């Protein structure tokens, strides 16, 4: 099978690899689509994502495909099923797994990070992370289930209520997913702050976003929101997120900042406004919800997927040579 192998820091090679073997509890999948995201940028550059990737390794953690073979112990899916795969595999035995916080697992492994992923014609995964797709969810849209599931975990960590006004900071793929998800979870109003007029307008026209702010020329309102979701990962947008908080607000720090970065916030505000500052890491057991958001039509990702790449184009994408990308997926299968 054809595979794009990360062979070193910023080094990829197209290689012909043998069909991967499955254990009795595993599934072999013919890859259809693999989304590429900021985590792949980090892994490509030698920085860790949810875990470190040690070359040689096949990246690709946002995968959809068709089941090609199942191990003897697998009962949930069968050959020919269309599926999406949750990349994250938990040990089930550590302190965090035993206290219902598997995302914090001490022995996290992940398809496309610590074991070979979807940037190859075939890959394997334990049956416990393979989810059957409803008929009305396309294999291409299904490549967005993993990012949606991360956003679902973020909103799971908040207390969302119908009276709330929410602000999303960041008009990247994740910010635009959040704009739809918080509405699906019932908040009263969602506003969006970003840097691209066209994306901001699209979110008003297609996804029911009320007010938009282009932060290159407008200030983000302060003391104005019950819920703020930061989906950029920069100290200045993190500070903006806290400043936008009303009394009693919850701030979800979803963006991944540089490891050495800090941001400043007023210490008295935390007390006086009774703020909640909440982190969010990956996607524990949120795949079913993510699939349902697509199946029910409460979310629409097709207008956000701007590029369909070949395996041979992934390196150019990660080197920033492909411009104007909103979300890129790699069409792996024929
Ligand atoms: N917590 C998690 O589990 C998790 C999962 C996936 C992604 N993330 C993180 O979420 C963040 C967003 O992800 P993404 O895929 O959308 O990546 P992205 O790189 O597309 O997001 C950044 C986007 O923010 C916008 N932006 C940049 N500067 C801005 C500013 N000053 N004000 C407003 N908007 C600005 C731009 O549109 C940019 O594209 C990243 O930091 C990513 O690492 C976290
Ligand atoms: Zn990703
Ligand atoms: Zn564990």
How many strand units? 17
Number of helices: 9
Find the structural class using helix and strand composition: alpha/beta
Runs in which pLDDT lies below 50 for 5 or more consecutive residues are none
Q: Which fold name is given in CATH as the topology of the largest domain?
A: Quinone Oxidoreductase, Chain A, domain 1
- Taken together, the total number of domains comes to 2
SSE inventory with pairings:
Layout: E1 2-8, E2 11-16, E3 26-36, H1 38-44, E4 62-70, E5 82-85, E6 88-89, E7 109-110, E8 122-126, E9 130-132, H2 139-142, H3 145-156, E10 165-169, H4 173-184, E11 189-194, H5 197-207, E12 212-214, E13 225-230, H6 235-243, E14 245-253, H7 267-272, E15 276-279, H8 287-295, E16 307-309, H9 314-318, E17 328-331
Parallel strand pairs: 10-11, 10-13, 11-12, 13-14, 14-15, 16-17
Antiparallel strand pairs: 1-2, 3-4, 3-8, 3-17, 4-5, 5-9, 6-7
The protein binds nicotinamide-adenine-dinucleotide and zinc ion (2 copies).
Nicotinamide-adenine-dinucleotide binds at residues 37-38, 147, 150, 169-175, 193-196, 215, 231-233, 237, 254-256, 280-282.
What does this structure look like?
Its cofactor is Zn(2+). Keywords: Metal-binding, Oxidoreductase, Zinc. This protein is an alpha/beta fold. It folds into 2 domains: 167 residues, Alpha-Beta Complex (Quinone Oxidoreductase, Chain A, domain 1), CATH 3.90.180.10; 129 residues, NAD(P)-binding Rossmann-like Domain (Rossmann fold). Helices cover 22% and strands 27% of the residues. The protein contains 9 helices and 17 strands. Helix 7 links the parallel strand 14 and strand 15. Helix 3 crosses helix 4 and helix 3 packs across helix 8. Bound molecules: nicotinamide-adenine-dinucleotide and zinc ion (2 copies). Nicotinamide-adenine-dinucleotide (NAD) binds next to helix 3, helix 4 and strand 11.
